[in-house]
Each structure stands twice: as structure tokens, then as C-alpha cells.
Amino acid sequence: MLFSSMTFLFVFMPLVMAIYFLAKKEIRNYVLLIASIIFYAWGEPRYLAIMIITILVNYLGAILLDKYQNPKTRWGVVTATILIDLSFLFYFKYFNFVIDNINLALHTHIDFVDVIMPIGISFYTFQAMSYLIDVYRKEVPAQRDVYKLALYIVLFPQLVAGPIVKYHDVCEQIDERTIEFKNVIIGLKRFIIGLAKKVLIANTLAVVADKIFAQAPENLTTEYAWLGIIAYSLQLYYDFSGYSDMAIGLGLMFGFKFLENFNYPYISKSISEFWRRWHISLATWFKQYLYIPLGGNRKGELRTYWNLFCIFLVTGVWHGAAWNYVLWGVWNGIFIVIERFIGWNKDKAERWYVLVGKHIYALLAILIGMIIFRSEGIAHAYGYVSRLFGIGVAEHLPDFDYGLNNKFALMLIVGLICAMPVCKNILYVRYERKVVRTLINIWLFVLFFWSTISLAASTYNPFIYFRF
Questions:
Q1: Lower CB count within 10 Å: N or C terminus of the chain?
Q2: CA–CA dist 305, 303 (Å, integer)
């Protein structure tokens, strides 16, 4: 079930919220747990068992970590549990990729069942591992109530596409939280903004981006190549950040405070800064649970460079089972290492023209990275980048209908403007400013009405991160 679906907006969400607010405080966790299971089972009931096994394995693993204090025993327990978690992730996400590459490399024809990846497995697996590692580090006690642990792992606002919520950030909220009217209203507004970002901007830009990327690179002009990657980069941002906004808004309505997941990444002046602003929950997860255990920056510069590169290689692999994702991880890792070597990863006062140059460099590196990320293969990515700079463009190209219209032009402009922090604090206008607050509320109502009308009138409502 998508947040941006009529079923969710007008049936599931109102019904769950009504039951939740009317229920006694003692049973609200159970209401959310049942709702979350229904939410997940609505789309993929056959994979519900995998999620339940993940919950039980990590629940028992944490209980054993609490029971045994011998370092070797605890290390064995945490290693075995994480291997089980990763085995599910590997099988459902990477098995097809590995077999395909074995057949290609060895010229074999190994037959196998085509494995379909369960929605959200990357996200809830990382959340389960977060809990287990926090218990292993003795940062939090083991959760004795299996239903509370299940709620943490399957909580529907962030179940299928994040943000990745670390256990130590929300364990106290699971046990005790207060629902405030002010936060419910702010959460509802945040949800509407996320819905508009997804439905009005991302879906509109996706039509053109998909048609351009569907063409063979040799059939693209330089202008269309630039238009395609700009449209796709904005589509990905508004698709994913819009979903994160909806998740954070829903969390607020239920009394949870999730950390931010995006902070205007396209204003970055380096790739290092970009990754401090883009998919923040994933970046901090890898930092806390992989980069620091590898040694972080505590074992010399060369080891630091290697650790940074490894983190972004794994980031690429996490996003998908294809060589273009591996290359995308390598692309980011190389820039991160270079920026640290020359000191570009640090914020410091600089002249305006230096800042402009850095911003242009970062945007160019980001856009080329997005081409690698979006392309069906490495050859397609190479051809597309070549067209971007006018290399190898034919004199006479066939005409295609790319879906360009006034709505696309409007949303492209809106997307470019709103990618900058021009309306950053719009939800937090002081209540004393009644005129401004009323205008904002009217505008949000218009956005919600416009979004729902667009959903009703169109069957095109993809969500990119379901694939990851």
C-alpha cells in the first residue's frame, strides 16, 4: 500500500488514526502493530513470514546477549544473528544477480527460481540490526516485550522506505510517548507537503525522465540529455524526500519523533556535504554501525581513506543488485576520498567565486552519479554521459514524444526553486501570526485537494525506492 494512494488516504489512515486516538493509552502500541501488519500484508502477504522470522531471531539474539556476559559468547551470538539477517537480505536481493554473473562469467546455464524481493526488506533488516548492535554495545537493554520490538521493526510510517530509525533513538518513545495537538497538526501538514512533493512534482517529472532514459543514448540530443537528468534528479529527490516527509508527519501524529532524512542536498558544495544532506538516516547508520567499527579515522589517513571508500561501495551495493549501483558507490567513494585528501570536506569561509565553483563541481558530480544510478547498465550510462557533453551526437535524430507540456514546465520550475531552502520553516509559523498561518493552511488544503485530484485522474504513481 502506498501513502500516495486513495485507499491509504481515505480509508486506512483515517480509520487507524480514529481507532488510535480513541483507544486507551495502554493498547495504542497494539493498535499500531496490528495496523502495521495489515499495511505490509496488504501488498505482500506471502512475505510476512520473513519479517516475523526477522523479529523473532533478533528478539532471541538480544535476550541471549543480555543473558551471557562472556565476550566470546556475546560476539558469537551477535555474529550469528547478523548473519541470519544478512542471509535473508542476500537471498532475496542479490541471489539473482550472483547467479546471472556466474552464468555470464563461466558460460554456464544454471537454472534457478527467479527470486522476487520483498518490499522494504533493506529497511527493516537494517532496523533489526540496529537494535541488536545497540544491545550488544550495551547502549540499550534488551527489549523483553516482543510486541514492542515488533512495533519498532514494522511500524508502518517508515516500514517500506524509511527513514531508517535506529533503536536507541526511539526506544523510549515506544515505551512512553505523549500525543500533543500541536504535533498532530504539524504532522498532518508535513504529510500533505510530502504528498504534494510526491504526486505533483515527482510523478510529473517522472513521465519525461522515464521517456528520455528509455531512449538509446545515440538517439538523444545534448539538450534532451540535460533535461532528462535534471528531471530525474529532481524526481528522485521529491519522490524519496516526499515519502520521508509523509513518514515523519505520520510519526508525529502518532507521537513519534523521527530524525530528518533530507536537508536540501542540491545546495551542497561537495559530495561530502551532499551525503550529510541526502538520505541522512542511511548515511548515519553506516557511520555508526560500519565506518566506526572499521576504525573510522582513528587509524591513520590511509586507513581512513580505505574505510570511507568501503562505506560508499557498500552504500552502492545496498541500493541494488546491479553493476551500475556498484559503480555509483565507487563514483561517490572516489570523490569522498579526494575531497578529504585536499580538505574540501570541511566547512570554512571562502570567497564567493570559490563557493560558486565548488557548487558547480558538486552539482556536476552529483548529476553524472545520478546517470550511473538511473541507467540500465554501464554502457547506457557511458553513452548518456557522452551525449551530455555533445560527444557522438548524430546529425539527424528521430523525433520522439517526450511528454513535454505546460504542467511539466511548471513543476520543473517549482522543483528547482523548492530544492533550495526558500520555505524551510513554513510549518512552524508562530500561532500569533494569524494571517500568515491562515494563508498557509489554505494553501495546504489546496495542495491536498490538488494532489488527490491528480491521483484520481492518473494511474501513473510509481515509487522509486520500493526497488531498494
A1: N
A2: 5
> Given 109, 168, 279, 319, which residue is catalytic?
319
Domain boundaries, the chain: 6-177, 183-270+345-467
380 catalytic per annotation: no
Over residues 165-212, the pLDDT tens digits come to 888 888 889 988 888 888 899 999 999 999 999 999 999 999 999 999
